[in-house]
């Protein structure tokens, strides 16, 4: 269904993702626990993302990052506003969006190959084609030789590689990533970041990447969207003009990187006036998001 240009006030075929005036209201318990009241999680959120662009979203815990990704994934409907991908309104989960998140468990009863082939089965591709495509993406994430392993036989970093291969294999228009590397150790995280950059250079997917890490956001993105809380809004969009390809190694010693980091950090300070460690506590997944992903998979399976 095409986006209602009257309603959104905007319709531009040049953008892959068009978010207009998103507002998400939840119902939460009142303080006295006696009743319910509305809670505004996101307000006036508008953003365009170009095809092939890498956009990171940072902000303090509770500012609505996961809520936003939830809406983009089609796992929940915004209270108001509109969201379109390639000019088509998002009304639910679909194979035009791949999702990778911290706690997104792989199917434990499927091997690496079978996990990667999941979306291809949904699309109804014949076995020979599935084999060819899954081999390609398993190679892309450096897991050739591990095709027959089960998830419990893999390290955290390897599992995330499988999740990335699975999301990319069915060739989605957009990749949505919610703190995908938060659960792995620091060294593996850097390796995965470098790999993601290599994969992005190769595939040029449009990526929306949620993180609580300023360095990760800058390292990966063309633009960093800084959100402020209560309610969640865009505080600033910072263009990252650092040369590509980038690697952790180069960026760690880059003066330009340090300067951009300072800009983003200052913006984040102003979102709540708190110190960086407080403003960025342990990452967490929005309540119910992991469960919703399982529901989304089931829905996709049912609709195919
Ligand atoms: P972030 O990902 O930035 O940490 P979230 O998107 O998880 O933030 O949450 C934004 C705000 O909305 C938080 O205050 C959170 O407690 C609240 N929230 C999220 N999901 C729900 C829900 N299903 N019901 C009520 N409140 C929610």
Overall description:
This protein is 39% helix and 23% strand. It is of the alpha/beta class. The chain has one domain (51-76, 87-303): P-loop containing nucleotide triphosphate hydrolases (Rossmann fold, 3-Layer(aba) Sandwich). Strand 1 and strand 2 form a beta hairpin. Helix 5 (127-140) crosses helix 6 and helix 8 (214-220) packs across helix 10 (255-272). The longest helix has 18 residues, at 186-203. The chain is globular, with a radius of gyration of 19 Å. Bound molecules: adenosine-5'-diphosphate. The site of adenosine-5'-diphosphate has 15 residues, from strand 1, strand 2 and helix 2.
- Structural class label: alpha/beta
CATH architecture: 3-Layer(aba) Sandwich
Number of domains: 1
The general outline is: globular
Average pLDDT reading: 85
Alpha carbon gap, first and last residue: 19 Å
Q: What is the number of strand segments? A: 10
**Which ions, cofactors or small ligands are bound in this entry?**
adenosine-5'-diphosphate
Q: Rg, please?
A: 19 Å
Q: Low-confidence parts lasting 5 or more residues at pLDDT below 50?
A: 1-11, 273-291
CATH superfamily: P-loop containing nucleotide triphosphate hydrolases
Task: Give the helix proportion (percent range).
Answer: 25-40%
CATH class: Alpha Beta
> Treating each run of at least 4 consecutive H or I residues as one helix, how many helices?
12
User: Beta-sheet strand percentage?
Assistant: 15-25%
Identify the strand order in the major beta sheet: 6-7-8-3-9-10
Strand and helix order: HEEEHEEEHHHHEHEHEEHHHH
């Amino acid at each position: 269904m095409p986006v209602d240009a009257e309603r959104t006030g905007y319709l531009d075929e040049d953008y892959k993702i068009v978010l207009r005036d998103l507002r998400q209201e939840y119902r939460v318990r009142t303080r006295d626990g006696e009743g319910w009241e509305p809670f505004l999680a996101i307000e006036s959120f508008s953003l365009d993302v170009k095809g092939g662009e890498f956009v990171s979203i940072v902000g303090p815990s509770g500012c609505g990052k996961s809520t936003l990704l939830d809406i983009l994934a089609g796992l929940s409907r915004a209270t108001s506003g509109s969201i379109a991908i390639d000019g088509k309104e998002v009304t639910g989960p679909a194979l035009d969006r791949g999702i990778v998140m911290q706690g997104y468990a792989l199917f434990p009863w499927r091997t690496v190959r079978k996990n990667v082939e999941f979306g291809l089965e949904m699309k109804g591709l014949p076995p020979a084609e599935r084999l060819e495509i899954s081999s390609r993406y398993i190679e892309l994430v450096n897991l050739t030789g591990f095709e027959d392993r089960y998830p419990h036989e893999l390290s955290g970093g390897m599992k995330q590689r499988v999740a990335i291969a699975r999301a990319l294999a069915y060739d989605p228009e957009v990749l949505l990533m919610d703190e995908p590397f938060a659960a792995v150790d620091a060294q593996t995280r850097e390796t995965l970041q470098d790999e993601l950059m290599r994969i992005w250079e190769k595939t040029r997917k449009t990526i929306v990447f949620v993180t609580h890490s300023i360095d990760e956001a800058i390292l990966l993105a063309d633009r960093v969207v800084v959100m402020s809380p209560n309610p969640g809004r865009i505080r600033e969009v910072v263009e990252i003009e650092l040369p590509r390809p980038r690697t952790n190694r180069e960026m760690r010693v880059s003066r330009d990187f340090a300067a951009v980091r300072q800009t983003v950090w200052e913006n984040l300070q102003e979102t709540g006036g708190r110190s960086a460690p407080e403003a960025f506590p342990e990452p967490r997944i929005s309540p119910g998001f992991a469960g919703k992903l399982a529901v989304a998979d089931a829905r996709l399976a049912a609709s195919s």
